[in-house]
Design a protein that fits this description.
The protein is of the alpha+beta class. It contains 7 helices and 8 strands, in the order E-H-H-H-E-E-E-E-H-H-E-E-E-H-H. Helix content is 29%, strand content 21%. Strands 1, 2, 3, 4, 5 and 8 form a 6-stranded antiparallel β-sheet that branches.
């Protein structure tokens, strides 16, 4: 079963990534507008009730990679040497080598960072309890919405630090790819994660299209491989699309709505 955590705003402020906050507002951090915006954001956060913050659920499981899939071991045989129940999570692979020289010209897939002989990785979801009043003025409502998103991401960052016992400010080992982000563009993967962690325990529900409610939520994997890196899958070919739909257990028509961002 997954474990749940709650973080207060005070605990999360040091873990907020302000780069994405300014990106959402389409302003620069060192501009007059940007500095005023951050001051307003911090004042807003510090004025919130101590009950406001973000919640997280987390579970570690043994997984093995097989080609471009991860096989998650859900239950083990009494002997403990082989699984009695598994869940397969397929991933997409880049069609073209990454432009980064650090990637050695390889086409990357998240399964590359998990051993075929077995590793332990984490599965997580976080959500913020910050919500704007429906009667709030447009500026304050947008400020609340962007801060809620940043708090959910900050909770994932703090969770990652806490799980690995790494103090805030020190570099984490591995990556934390989230569903809907460039390395996991398939929104339907969220349904697989929902089978692994109890998202409802922290108030997250899913729509038929794979969207999380509240919107200020994030879910994904924590892969502690020291050489793992973030990457963008990019546009995929029809051949990989058909293969992926088959691995995912969907027909192409069922799969297409979840992969619009990477289809030509």
């Amino acid at each position: 079963m997954s474990s749940t955590f709650h973080y207060t705003v005070e605990e999360l402020i040091p873990f907020i990534d302000w780069v994405y906050f300014f990106h959402a507002w389409q302003t620069k951090a060192d501009s007059t507008e940007g500095m005023k915006l951050k001051a307003d954001a911090l004042q807003t956060l510090q004025s919130l009730s101590s009950t406001i913050g973000a919640s997280a659920c987390y579970r570690e499981l043994k997984v093995v990679s097989k080609d471009d899939d991860l096989i998650v071991y859900l239950e083990m045989q009494p002997c403990g040497s082989c699984p009695s129940r598994t869940l397969r999570i397929p991933f997409l692979r880049q069609q073209s080598p990454s432009l980064s020289t650090d990637d050695g010209g390889y086409t990357l897939c998240l399964a590359d960072f998990v051993s075929p002989f077995g590793d332990v990785i984490g599965f997580f979801a976080t959500t913020s309890s910050l919500q704007a009043d429906d009667q709030a003025d447009p500026y304050l409502k947008l400020l609340y919405d962007t801060l809620a998103s940043r708090l959910a991401e900050a909770a994932a960052e703090k969770l990652d630090h806490d799980i690995h016992g790494i103090p805030q400010g020190e570099s984490l080992i591995g990556i934390r790819p989230a569903v809907g982000y460039p390395s996991i563009p398939d929104l339907s993967v969220i349904f697989l994660l929902d089978q692994l962690i109890d998202m409802q325990s922290i108030g997250i529900t899913l729509t038929d299209h794979g969207a999380m409610r509240p919107q200020s939520s994030v879910a994904g994997l924590i892969i502690p491989h020291p050489f793992a890196r973030y990457f963008s899958v990019g546009t995929i070919t029809q051949e990989q699309f058909i293969d992926y739909a088959h691995r995912r257990g969907f027909t192409p028509d069922e799969m297409r709505p979840f992969l619009r961002s990477v289809l030509p």
